[in-house]
Amino acid sequence: MLHKLSKRFNYDTSFFTKNIVWYLLSIFIFSRLFYVIWKWNDLKYIRNPIDFFIMNDYNFSLFWAIFWFFIVLIINLKIRKIFEAPSKGKITEYIDGVVLSFIFILFIGFIWALLWWQVYGRETHIGIEIMYSHPFTSVPFQVPIFPLPIIYSISFFILFSVLYISSVFIKVRWLIWYAGLIAFASILLIFEFFSWKYDILKDSTPISFPQLFSIVLIIICSYKLYRILQSNEKRLK
């Protein structure tokens, strides 16, 4: 998807492929690290250092994966601006394509999470619940539960489709990036109330860490989006 969008947003895909190892390492290490911190009440009894990063639950922190992806992206842009191509070292050149590609992979990722039981909901009585009856499932519920990964997958597919079509007509840089992140954070903020997961924040408050970060992301992106729309309005006048 990054390659496909490179023509639309006029950037070089090799900028990402050349640095793929750094993206992979930063996302894997830090997203796993902060997941362990968030779930410290359950994971503080780790004895083997290898189990700190490689466990049978395969769980990672989505927000810290995003955060460290952008840290590596910004560092690579700074290096490129200094040593390679100053005119190609601006984040505005890449950011809309990155966000669209990220949302594209989310709806695929949540299908995977459904099949391998990394993400599942809690018990509800809405009428759309699903039952996990596989003999080796890690889902502890013996009753139908909220189909959280399916809802996430459908929601992000719709979001991707809307943003992808909109990107054909919208020429303002950063607009897709901020609108996409606001919608992404809003979806997480709403549906995490249906999640089975608990962390050190949710143990003592009504919200979890992903929801807290969603709120922060919505506030920041809404303000930035308002500034962009305001500046474009002044330019048109």
Report how far apart the termini are.
Answer: 36 Å
Arithmetic mean pLDDT: 85
Secondary-structure element string: HHHHHHHHHH
Low-confidence regions: none
Shape: globular
How would you characterize this protein structure?
With 237 residues, the chain is mainly alpha-helical. It has one domain (2-236). The chain is built from 10 helices and no strands. It has helices spanning 2-9, 14-17, 20-38, 40-43, 49-53, 62-84, 95-115, 148-169, 175-191, 209-236. α7 (95-115) packs parallel to α9 and α9 packs antiparallel against α10 (209-236). The mean pLDDT is 85.
Give a quick precis of the structure.
This protein is an all-alpha fold and about 240 residues long. It contains ten helices and no strands.
What characteristics describe this protein?
mainly alpha
Write the layout of secondary structure elements.
Layout: H1 2-9, H2 14-17, H3 20-38, H4 40-43, H5 49-53, H6 62-84, H7 95-115, H8 148-169, H9 175-191, H10 209-236
Helix pairs in contact: 1-7, 3-6, 7-8, 7-9, 8-9, 9-10
